[in-house]
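> example.struct
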C-alpha cells in the first residue's frame, strides 16, 4: 500500500515527506527535524529532474537522503553553536553567584557552620565560621542556594 502510494506520487513523495517533517518541527521544536526535512526537499528537487533516469533508483535516493540529513544536521549544529553571544548580564540566571562580594548583616548567628542572612528581599542560608548575630559578613562563594561567608 505504501509502495503504491509512493510510486503513484513519484518525486512528490519526497516533497510531502519534507513538508511533514517541517510541520513536525513546528509542532515540536527542537531544531533537528528541520534539517531532515530540508534534506527530503533537496532529494525531492533532484527527483523532479532525475526521476526518469536509469540510475535514480530508490536506493540512491535513500542514500542521498541519509547523507544530506547527516550533513545538514552537522552544518546546522555548527551554525547554531557559534551563535552564543556575550550577555550584558552573564549572572542573570545564577543568582547565588551574582551575590559574591556583597556584604550583609547576620540575621541568625552562624552556629555549627550554618546561619542566615538577608540580601535584598531574600533570606539566604549561609555557611562559615561561627559568628554572632549582627556581624557584618561578606559572601565569598556560592554553591547552589548556599552561600559561604566570612567576617567582613
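> example.seq
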Amino acid at each position: 500500500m505504501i509502495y503504491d502510494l509512493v510510486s503513484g506520487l513519484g518525486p512528490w513523495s519526497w516533497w510531502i515527506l519534507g513538508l511533514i517533517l517541517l510541520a513536525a518541527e513546528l509542532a515540536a521544536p527542537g531544531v533537528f527535524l528541520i534539517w531532515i526535512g530540508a534534506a527530503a526537499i533537496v532529494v525531492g528537487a533532484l527527483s523532479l529532474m532525475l526521476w526518469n533516469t536509469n540510475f535514480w533508483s530508490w536506493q540512491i535516493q535513500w542514500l542521498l537522503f541519509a547523507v544530506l540529513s547527516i550533513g545538514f544536521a552537522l552544518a546546522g549544529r555548527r551554525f547554531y553553536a557559534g551563535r552564543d553571544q556575550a550577555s550584558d548580564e552573564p549572572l542573570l540566571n545564577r543568582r547565588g553567584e551574582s551575590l559574591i562580594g556583597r556584604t550583609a548583616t547576620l540575621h541568625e548567628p552562624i552556629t555549627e557552620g550554618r546561619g542566615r542572612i538577608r540580601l535584598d528581599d531574600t533570606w539566604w542560608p549561609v555557611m562559615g565560621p561561627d559568628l554572632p548575630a549582627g556581624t557584618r559578613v561578606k559572601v565569598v562563594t556560592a554553591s547552589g542556594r548556599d552561600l559561604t561567608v566570612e567576617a567582613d
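> remarks
The mean pLDDT is 84.
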